[in-house]
């Protein structure tokens, strides 16, 4: 999830945090930041519910409401007793065992559960380490499928602009080639095929010209395209843009008509974030391959999954290399799998849809006034996602300081002040997040 470095609000920490920050500057390379770091991050000593407790106060705040759910993963909040118990119980049995030639109950139970709750037809589950790796596996599945069917020329990928699918190599090739952060690698990455970005708006009216162009592009390149890959309904780290579910049906129809596989990257949208359990549900369709991650373990451990239909699995199995040539060392990690199953069941057994709808209402009410602020281009909300888009790049340092001063942790990027809070966030904390986002927009 890309962003730019922002200084730790309140300046250098004193007291107990100072030695830790000195070691951090010397040794720790933070995401999307320089080495050595130019500014101090905030030091978190513990977390519970929706609150992060800092080792030293920042802007007079010792606790911050987390409006980011740890990059959208901690949907149940922190230090949840159900997930803690799942982790402890599994730790007493075994924390890890290789998955090659061996199997275990946590992975089997998780795979069965994912096959049950995802769109009908996704029956086979490949467990990976992270979202980016899940995308790599999905792309490899599709490339190997066509090679196994005697169509090795079908090795390109098609997507639309504005997307983001991760930071590993092939995943970068299907991110936005100009507006994204991966343009540094243009000329080295595989060259893929890009449609124009989808028309904005979840409730947007159909655009016949755009849909026709999308169908024509798929038809024109079907002889060389293995798969279409998109983030359904919400383009996340590429710009927090929403599009109409009907476009997913257009993709499904065009892919079926022209012999192209369809991948949905639901790493950010899966497990209720958009108001549907999976964003594919807004369109009522099943992709050939689906990627899951982030909220899968409730933010406890790194784990992702790539699911596919029997058609894809059987196609690969008919090839000269009848196996999927991928095998992470920590694939199917029992500890992560046990927590993931507990997290998914906790979601399903609760009123996740009601909680997301409640948060959506709070975000709509609390962020609406931001539309009148100078420098704000648009305010948009879908499910438990709230976005303030500026008409200029945000001043990351100033925006972060303003949010922290208001008692909230937000992480703006590019021209966006946004929030994707845990589903357990109470109404008063949703209101606090909205106030902090407005303050960040004013400062940024």
TrEMBL record:
Pathway: Cofactor biosynthesis; biotin biosynthesis; 7,8-diaminononanoate from 8-amino-7-oxononanoate (SAM route): step 1/1
Catalytic activity: (8S)-8-amino-7-oxononanoate + S-adenosyl-L-methionine = S-adenosyl-4-methylsulfanyl-2-oxobutanoate + (7R,8S)-7,8-diammoniononanoate
InterPro entries reported for this sequence: Aminotrans_3 (IPR005814), Aminotrans_3_PPA_site (IPR049704), BioA (IPR005815), PyrdxlP-dep_Trfase (IPR015424), PyrdxlP-dep_Trfase_major (IPR015421), PyrdxlP-dep_Trfase_small (IPR015422)
Keyword S-adenosyl-L-methionine attached: yes
Keyword line: Aminotransferase, Biotin biosynthesis, Cytoplasm, Pyridoxal phosphate, S-adenosyl-L-methionine, Transferase
Primary location: cytoplasm
Superkingdom per UniProt: Bacteria
Annotated positions for site Participates in the substrate recognition with KAPA and in a stacking interaction with the adenine ring of SAM: 32
Keyword S-adenosyl-L-methionine applies: yes
Gene Ontology MF annotations: adenosylmethionine-8-amino-7-oxononanoate transaminase activity
Localization in the cell: Cytoplasm
One matching Pfam family: Aminotran_3
Cofactor(s) named in the record: pyridoxal 5'-phosphate
Modification type N6-(pyridoxal phosphate)lysine: residues: 294
Binding of pyridoxal 5'-phosphate, residues: 131-132, 265, 328-329
Binding residues annotated for substrate, in chain numbering: 71, 164, 294, 327, 411
Record function comment: Catalyzes the transfer of the alpha-amino group from S-adenosyl-L-methionine (SAM) to 7-keto-8-aminopelargonic acid (KAPA) to form 7,8-diaminopelargonic acid (DAPA). It is the only aminotransferase known to utilize SAM as an amino donor.
Quaternary state and interactors: Homodimer.
HAMAP family to which the protein is assigned, alphabetical: BioA
Family: Belongs to the class-III pyridoxal-phosphate-dependent aminotransferase family. BioA subfamily.
Protein name: Adenosylmethionine-8-amino-7-oxononanoate aminotransferase
Organism: Streptomyces boetiae
Gene that this polypeptide is encoded by: bioA
